[in-house]
Each structure stands twice: as structure tokens, then as C-alpha cells.
Amino acid sequence: MSREFDNPARPQLLEADGIRIEFGGRQILASIYMRVQTGQIVGLLGRNGSGKSVLLQTIFGARAVADASVRVNGRRVVPAFRAPGLLNYLPQEPLLPPSLSLAKAARMLGVDIELATARFPELRPQFDRRLNELSGGSARLVQALLLLHANTAFSLFDEPFSGVMPVHVETLAEEMQRMKSRKGLLITDHRYAEVLPICDVVYLLHQGRLLQLEGDVREQLRDYGYLAS
Ligand SMILES: Nc1ncnc2c1ncn2[C@@H]1O[C@H](COP(=O)(O)OP(=O)(O)OP(=O)(O)O)[C@@H](O)[C@H]1O
């Protein structure tokens, strides 16, 4: 199958709408329209349980939702993960088999591990170690870096900074900014202070609706009860 999506020279637009989800009569997602362009970092914020993970799973195609429309350049791609070179997804839980070495995991994803970890010299002596031999934060960092550097048009990251120490969060955020010249990134993470400065677009998921925040984003986050007032 051809990999028509992962050409960085060709702009791509990922759109999702029509996603309605309820659990036990409680509506989680009601009215969603979301777009991510290559060259952009899009931040998705929301209170615990607001449905951010469910939304990412649905866009990726891991969760089947009737009427969900996920499109690239206007063409439906459901499930999106089947489209070669289109997108990858870091879930909240570990993605890669824990018994894989870093070097093997990188090879599996077609990533040059030297390049992907160039700004994290501490990881160099660990290339031959298995993921389950790394600390939790290092394993999270490695998985985020490998997906970030993998050759896809989009990456969806669910809490990529979770457990990662502050100095590496800063460098990872810089890497994300650098890599957006090659892809579009959709990031949800409660480390809002690190997320907001790198985002081109910020969405807030609030009571099932997706709101695009503009202007004084922090004030709106306070108004909607995401930040303390
Ligand atoms: N399989 C399921 N069955 C029932 N309820 C579910 C299921 N999956 C998710 N939920 C509910 O859907 C809601 C949204 O969950 P989700 O994990 O998407 O929240 P989130 O915004 O990612 O939260 P957090 O910030 O805590 O990670 C939660 O109330 C959760 O309990």
C-alpha cells in the first residue's frame, strides 16, 4: 500500500466530527468538531473525565463510534490507523511491548534512535536495555520521542509528559516544536504550563463540547473550572 500521507512537503488537514459518545446514559462527547493541520501543535485540555482520551481513541480508530467522521483533506479515513503513514498514537498506558529493547523498538517504528534521542544524552547508554528495565519516566519519554520521530503525518499524544522530570519535559516540548515542521501534533496533558506555550490552537473539552480558546486562554480556563480562580 502506498504511503500517501507522510510527505512533509504536502500539507494535510485532519478533521474529526460527528463523534457522540455516552456511557450509562451520561453523554461524554456531544458536539465535536476538531481540526489539526500539519505544521501545527494542537492542545486539548479538559477536566478529569471530560473525554479527552476517548476522543483521541476515536480519532485514531481504536474505538468504533457510529457516525464518527474522521477525514484527511476531506476524505474519510475510518479507522485512521489503517491508512499507512497517516498517524500514530501514544495512549495513557504504555504502548510498546515492555520486553523490547529501545534499539529494537526504534527499528520497528523505522526511527533513527540516535537522531530521536540526540537531545537526551542520558538515554544513549540505554539503547540495548528493555523498556521494562527503564524508569517509568524514561520509558514514557522514549515512547513519546519514538512516535514523534516516526514518519507519520500526525501524532496523537495522551499525556506524553506524565512522569517525565521537568528538565526533560522542557526539552521534549522543544522537540515537539521542532518536529511540527514535519507533522501535526495533537497533545492532551495536564501540564498546561508546558503545553500552552507550544500550542498553535487550544481546545477545551467541556461538558461534551469542544471549545476553541482564543485570547486570554488562562482566564477562560479559570472560568470553565479547569484552573483554580
Ligand atoms: N469503557 C467505558 N465504560 C464506561 N465509562 C467509560 C469507559 N471509558 C471511559 N469512560 C468514562 O468516560 C469519561 C471520559 O473518560 P476519559 O478517560 O476520556 O477522560 P479524560 O478526559 O481523558 O480524563 P483524565 O484527564 O482523567 O485522563 C469518564 O467519565 C470515564 O469514566
Automatic annotation (TrEMBL):
Protein name, entry field: ATP-binding cassette domain-containing protein
SUPFAM superfamilies: P-loop containing nucleoside triphosphate hydrolases
Pfam families: ABC_tran
Alphabetized UniProt keyword annotations: Amino-acid transport, ATP-binding, Nucleotide-binding, Transport
Source species of the chain: Hymenobacter glaciei
TM region(s), chain numbering: none
A GO molecular-function annotation: ATP binding
Cross-referenced InterPro entries: ABC_transporter-like_ATP-bd, BCAA_Transport_ATP-bd_LivF, P-loop_NTPase
Superkingdom, natural source: Bacteria
Residues annotated as domain ABC transporter: 14-229
PROSITE patterns, alphabetized: ABC_TRANSPORTER_2 (PS50893)
Family to which the UniProt record says this protein belongs: Belongs to the ABC transporter superfamily.
